[in-house]
Amino acid sequence: MHYAWQYKLYYPNKLLTTTGESVEVIDSGKSNADAGPDFFNAKIKIGDTMWAGNVEVHLRSSDWLRHGHELDDAYNSVILHVVKEADKIIYRGNGEAIPQMVLPYFTDLDERYDALLASKTFVPCAAKFDKVPSIVLRSWQNSLLTERLEQKVRNIQTLLAANKNDWDETFYITLARNFGMSLNGAPFEMLAKSLPQSILAKHKDNLFQIEALLFGQSGLLEVVNNQEDEYVNSLRKEYAFLQSKYKLNPIDGHLWKMLRLRPVNFPHIRIAQFAALTHQSSWLFSKIIDKPNIEHIHTLFQCDTSDYWTTHYTFETASSPRKKPIGKTTLTVLLINTVVPFLFAYGQYRDNADLQESAIAMLEQLPPEKNSIIDGWNVLNVTVQSAYDTQALLQLKKCYCDEKKCLQCRIGHAVLTEIMY
Q1: Closest of 148, 167, 147 to residue 159, by C-alpha
Q2: Containing H/E element for 51?
Q3: Rounded distance, CA 35 to CA 160, Å?
Q4: Across the strands, what pairs with 51?
Q5: Distance CA 213, CA 248 (A)
Q6: SS3 180
Q7: Model-wide pTM > 0.85
Q8: Helices 181-194, 207-218: crossing angle, 10 deg rounding
Q9: What is the pLDDT of residue 316?
Q10: Distance CA 192, CA 174 (A)
Q11: How far apart are CA 391 and CA 377, in angstroms?
Q12: C-alpha span between 331 and 333 (Å, rounded)
């Protein structure tokens, strides 16, 4: 009902009040997502009288009373009550009856909407997706990308407030979380929060001490069965000293997950890479802000783990020698989920449009992400050229398609109104 009123998906020559007066909608009004009537500042001609005010939409007239609107002065300015079923006369606070209209929306709108809601395909509109004009999808992607960045900015602002507006510390925690990817993101974030960047900075020139701090705080040293590994024993000894010095409390080592992970993604390797990155580039965010381009950032993230990890994936057993730098795919993920949102957020904070544009330009330069969701869009022949596209498509799938928010989606709107035919 709300959607049909907002987009005028009704028969205009059939608009009548419940008392038989003609209705002409000059302006449907501005949709209101907050408290109060559903639409503000509408202009409606009822009979020979032009009205300006607000509009409320309900399934039934009696919903007005069920919601207690007769007791709320904010609803005294309602000039028309739009309903699907008129089962009650309603009144303003002064006892004056409010005009009501049963909305004659398009007869097949319910059927189309129910079909979308009932769909079990990758996206509800998959059957008609090929008929959506490319200009509709492209313009929607631009909005979705901005929406996704704004969501990430809000998350950054929340963490920033908890860190007393310390951008470097907030970046450090967010970067750590994304080092853990989806499976180990939470324990990696807990690790970073338990070990302030300021402590690591004091040991910037000593990679072994940084490893001792990170592996000690991770709790992984406590769950090692091999008691004869010299490297592990040295880490324990060094961590015991640093733990006492800084009064640190490690997280539970059993929080880390390894099932179905490729060895290169084991938490031990990720922590070793994070240690190497910290050793090479402490206060990383400040360095990125000074020169926000992909080539420079790539050099900041180029680092190798210590020698031990050349022949290990965990503390337990040795493996064939292999260097384990931060891979291209991992770096792309870190840039997309950490660097870009922080550039955008900091640009907003400093009112610096150049930084915000640099963030968006970076997404346009980065390769597209590869995951099951993007694979689904590929099946629908959606063109994917960069991370800009994949971020927008992830937002569309997760926040609209999966939630069946077809009424708020431009593609859903195209399908419901058949503007593509």
Answers
A1: 167
A2: strand 49-60
A3: 29
A4: 44
A5: 9
A6: coil
A7: yes
A8: 110
A9: 82
A10: 9
A11: 12
A12: 5
Is the pLDDT score of 226 beyond 80?
no
DSSP string, 102-154: E--B-TTHHHHHHHHHH--SSSTTGGGGGGS-HHHHHHHHHHHHHHHHHHHHH
- The secondary structure element, H or E, covering residue 400 is none
Residue 420's pLDDT is 35
Chain position carrying tokens 């290169």: 264
Question: What token pair was written down for 154?
Answer: 């809000």
Q: Tokens 């007869």 map to which residue?
A: 107
**pLDDT tens digit sequence for 162-175:** 999 999 999 999 99
Backbone angles phi, psi at 44, to 5 degrees: -135, 135
Residue 311: both structure tokens together? 């022949």
351 φ, ψ to 5°? 55, 45
Q: 């996206």: which residue's tokens?
A: 123
Measured CA to CA, the distance from residue 129 to residue 33 in angstroms comes to 29
Given the DSSP bridges, would you call strands 39-46 and 30-31 parallel, antiparallel or unpaired? antiparallel
User: What's the rounded Cα separation, in Å, for the pair 137 and 233?
Assistant: 57
